[in-house]
Amino acid sequence: MAVLTSYDPASYQKADDGQHTEATAVGSVETLAISQLPEVIANARVAQKSWASLSLIERQQYVVKAYQQLVALQDELARLIGQEMGKDYRRATYEVGGTVQNAAYFASEISDALTTEHVDNRTEIQYRPLGVVAVISPWNYPLAMANNLLMPALMAGNSVILKPSEQTPLVAELFINTLNSVLPKHVLQLAQGDRSLGQALVAADINMVAFTGSMAAGKHIMANAAASLKRLVMELGGNDPMIVMATANIDAAVRFAVASSFENAGQMCTSTERVYVDERIADEFEQKVVMLASRYQVGKWDEANVNIGPLVNPMQHQKVLEQLQDAKAKGASFLLGSDDYALPFIQPTVVSGITPEMLIEREETFGPVVAISRYKHIDEAISRANDSHYGLAAVVFGGQGAKAVAEQLEAGMVGVNQGAGAGNAPWVGAKQSGFGFHGTVAGHRQFAQVRVMSY
Fold first, then answer.
1. Could you report the per-residue pLDDT of 340-377, keeping only the tens digit for each?
2. 322 is catalytic
3. Of 235, 263, 273, 363, catalytic
4. Is 235 one of the annotated active-site residues of the chain?
5. CA atoms within 13 A on the CB side of 25
6. pTM value?
7. Radius of gyration of the CA atoms of the chain, in A
């Protein structure tokens, strides 16, 4: 029996040989062998037929009852999130609470979206199951992001195979096993394993892949799904810009820039990655960013008053260091922090003078860094904001003219004097940040086959 071991990110340190790292194990789970996939999928197909035969309301009742079993486990789920990926306890508690406590409302919203619509007396639009759906979820929000894809897939009458990140297997194990104490057998199954298992699942005889992760992985999934034209819903990361105009409320812009850059230790798909600020207000903006950023505290998930936890693993830690070192070598200034941090933490860092030649401007950082550049003309800021393969979210802070600037940004979600993606709206990326989308009526229907029935 093969096992997958989960490690505490806060315990990572270089080994004595200097070539390897050491960490404390949190726990382990049994993995699924690729050779077992056909049986798992066959079971999913059989279970899906019975599940689809239930009415939408009956499926909703099953799902709501299943999620009610998680209420007593909220503290344990939050603790596991902290132990496995480093998120501080307060943020982990918010993630769990949002998932568990909003489950009944979310299920009702999905049910409304999937209810048959009557076009006229003889025609209706139905939302039918697709079949077997693979949900491949990330480690940075291991419960919430799995849930955002899993619940609409189930409610639509599909069976689901969840392949969670190998960084957070214990959270997934508790989550799925608890739901399965209520759901019919094999309607929801767990596939624990590494990247090779995920790739095998995508290539297998399933009907849909719902994925959150990197752009590179998304392209691989798309290529492997092409042969059978599998349905795809994919969120593929971002390199989100923020434009600060001369007319902006500087204090509000500072608070957003720092909070958005540092949230979840910067390990967030809609984290602000690039800040373009009008040179007329740049000195004041940078000074206030440094003052606020320096107040953030770094530490383990269970330490009091911690704002920034460890990065999830040594590979991600090294990636952030490489971007910081590249920026320094190409002329960027460090207003706070440095380009050299020991495992497992990255201290609050503020870098100024970033340029398009730097990795920190061109790639997704996924670390607690505020990266700033000054501009003379707004057209320059808009051009640099749009100069990316990514297009998940973008933000503009400013007074008069801010909305006109926002209209020119190439992103699926744009915020003016607030975060992007606010309100009851779908979660959607433009360009190579996404394929399909999820959330709200239109997003929930992505997990169903539309059928026009005329009598």
1. 999 999 999 999 999 999 999 999 999 999 999 999 99
2. no
3. 235
4. yes
5. 6
6. 0.96
7. 23
